[in-house]
Specification:
This protein has about 525 residues and is an alpha+beta fold. It is built from eleven helices and 29 strands.
Amino acid sequence: MSRTTKLPQNRTLLSVLVATSLVLVGLLLGILIMLSVRPPQGQLLPQVVADPALPPVAERPVTATDSGEVEVATDIATLNQPSREIAALVTPTVVFIEVQASSEDEGMSDWFHGFGGPHARQSVGSGVILNEEGYVVTNHHVIEGAQSIRVTLDDKRQFEAAVIGSDPSTDLAVIRLDHGDAPLSTSRFGDSDEVRVGDWVMAVGNPFRLTSTVTTGIVSALGRDVNIIEDPAGIEDFIQTDASINPGNSGGALVDLSGALIGINTAIATDTGVSEGYGFAVPANLVQRVTADLMAYGEVRRGLLGIEIRPVLASQAEDLSLDRVSGVLVHQIASGGAADLAGLESGDVILAVQDVTVDAPNALQSVVARYAPGQTLSVDVWRDARRWRFSVTLKDSNDPVYNAWRTPPRLQELEPDPALPNPREERDGEPEAPPVVSLDAWGLGLRNLDTQDQDDFGLDTGAYVLFTQNGGPAFQAGLPRDMVITYLDGEAVASAEEAQRYLEGATDATVLVRVQRRDGLTAFYELMVPQD
């Protein structure tokens, strides 16, 4: 009975509770929806229309603008497409070069010409295919001393190659593939004069034998002269980039965003032997000129102005009434040379050649090096507070006029001459120079750092290279004097005596020498251990 009377009451209560719950749930959902879609104050909700060509919104990056609006970027595949296309275009034009050389030849290594790493004796590098005839540009230091060359293409085909010509002054060389009628992918030259700091670039090469490696970066600087080409007539006007470049990249391509070749990767500046973000490439306009001569004649026929030049200092600019420090100072002129016959004089300031502004000696050298003997150039000169234009017809470097005047070959000091004064300025009370440690078998003279050395090099310890002897292992490896040896095979060197003990006790075939130059840069040299 009680059950029959209570049942209707329970049903009524349950109905009320259910209805109330539904109302509350509806209100909460409405509030949540309003909060989730409520636009910023003062703005209307934008209409969203689905684009069938784009992936779902969750797959696309979004950014907020200053106005608070949300912008959806292009999909990742579209952003990647330009880089993919450049890599696909350039990679087949870059080759891997392996060189066999005589055991006594030290020039074969891929050192990045004095800035290489711990694998300095590996005769490997990169090259760029210039044309369908099989001509390939690479670095002089990659193929120097080569007895045989094997080239591997991106598609794994392999060909033998021969050296056509080499130019130590620019560290460039041309080899030719024995490819028969096999098809080749070729590069396209860009205009390196149009390159600007901040431009995006891509480096393609074979670092550490990792073939067909692509890295990217920007142009960090232009017109770099880092004193790595030891040829007396060396021309350095490098493009600097932070694209990762390592041993094995030498001779590889530096290209712009269109895939055009703007430089040949040649060197790195590093303390470790691997990339630290300072790579250097020979500009394409100079490469084009040098390779054209090497393919046609087997050598570079270089025209000369016949002048000795210096940078313009701030004090000189003021005396010359220049409105800023600019141009290149003509210090001396070869009598009867090209500049002399055109009317240039000592004391002139060269401002431009062929309308290309030159503000440093290496920039002037690089521009002139693009032209052959017999070509006439317009040269803008500052003289008597006025700008003048001269027409200069370049003379061949072998012209008799230049024979006695040209820069003599670099000389190595055989041994210190006690009859000659010390080149350092003598100061009262200065302690005597440290004694010389002679390593006759190595052809090397070392001493400890004195206080002046420590100030000049910014080092407390090390072994100062006082001289190298002609024909000795140090001389053959290209180790210059006036450097400080800081490491031998990775072990720190605190004194000349420590260096002597290590070198005299060396048992391996070679010793890797790390030195510091006066400008603070580090270089590496590999010395053959002398045989008893």
